[in-house]
Structure formats: structure tokens, C-alpha cells
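Researcher: If only I could read C-alpha cells as easily as an amino acid sequence. Walk me, if you will, through where the backbone shape changes along the chain. I have put the entry right below:
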Amino acid sequence: MLQVERSGHGPDMTLFQPFLVLHIATGMAAVLVGFAPLLTAKGSRAHRLWGRAFVVLMTTLLACAWVMTALRFNTYFLALSATASLTLFSGVRMLGRKRPDVRPQDRARPLDWAATFGALGIGVWVLALIALGRSDGPPVVSAALAYGALSVAAWDLWRFLRPRDWPFSPDLWRYEHLVKMLSAHAAVLSAFSGNFLTFLPQPWSQLWPTVLFQSMAVIWTATLILRRRALQA
């Protein structure tokens, strides 16, 4: 969810307000629903159903975010929308591109390239605006989000260009899906925290979900890798 100024009048406010209401409603629902896939057995019917519900909510939320960003440009809005969009999109696309080493149809498509280069360009743009002193959002948080978009984009470009190279494994898709969906959930939780948990100091009111979820992703992925190696030993 985006932090927004709620004052103002005119045609842009008339367009902005309905998207804001829908954005907030789906954002709050996504914060709650996003925990369900984490708590259900991976690959189970419940996991898939809750995962789809989370994706629908996030897609609606992000569509509203892009419209709102177009109506009222803000570097923080832009960086958050780009990072959350790429992690969600790439995290879902991984499910249909599990084995690029043996199936050419599982390799990146033009849509994957376009989304990745789009997020890469936005990340560079946001960092340039911050460096020029033209950032109209919290610069620390905006920079962290921009670097997040650049990191995910750079990783995806490497995987697109060299699908069989390090660190490829038959289970890499599983780890990528986990990390990226956790990142998408962290993005909406960060916005929720920044809007409503105002008793926390800045910029940590917006950064703590990212730190927590990324740490969780690293530990969870490492656990899955070690468990698989133990089963194969």
C-alpha cells in the first residue's frame, strides 16, 4: 500500500480516490492472505488456492498503484511499485519455467525480458533522481527499493542469458519462487507498516518487513537445500 497525501481537489483527485480506496482494501487483504501460503503444505491444494488469492489481490493492488503513480508521481511510489511488480511477476512465472535446461519452452519469453528491463530501468531512474536531490519520497527507503529492483532484475537477466549455468539445479525454481513471493509479501507489509505502525521510528517502520522476510528467505532456502542434500546422500 502506498503512503499518499489525502488532501487535494480537482479532476485528478476524482480519479485518484477510487483507486486509493481499492488499493488500501486489497492491500490490507493481501497482508493477511499472504501468510496463508506460508502456513500450508507446499504443493497442496490449500497452498495453491491461497497462493492464487494472494496473487489476485497483489495484482489488483499493483494495478491501482501504477495508476496512482501516474496521477501523482512520487519516487517512493515508483520504486515500490516496480520492485513489488517484478518480484510478484517473476515469482509466479517461475512456476511455468521450471526446467529451462531441458525444455526450450521454459526459457524466458519476450514478456519476461520486457518486465525485467522495465524494472531495471525504473531502479536506475529512481537512484538518479535521489542522487540529483529530486526525490519526493523517503530517500533511504526509495533507494533500498530501487536496489531491490536492480538486484532481482540482474539475477533474472543472468538466469535468462545462462539458464544452465551456476547456480542452476532442478530445484532452483522452487527456491526462486519462495524468495520472490516472500519479497512481494514483504513489500506490501512494508507499506502497511509505514502507513499504520507510525509509532516505529523511520525508516525502520518501512524497512523491518524486508529485513525480516529476506532473512527468513535465506534461512528457509538453506534449510531446503541441506535437507535435499541429506536425502540424496
Observations:
- The two ends are 45 Å apart (CA to CA).
- Residues 3-9 have pLDDT under 50 and may be disordered.
